[in-house]
Amino acid sequence: MSRWSRLKVPVAVIAVAGIFGGAVVAPLAMPSAPADAESMAFQQRIHQEFVPSEAPEADLVYAEVPAELSQDEQQRVKAEEAAAAAKKAAEASSPAKTAAGAPPRYTGGGSPAEWMAAAGIAESDWGYVDYIASKESGWNPNATNASSGACGLIQANPCSKVPGSGYNPVDNLRWANGYAVGRYGSWAGAYAFWTSNHWW
Question: Is the confidence at residue 137, as pLDDT, over 90?
Answer without folding.
Answer: yes
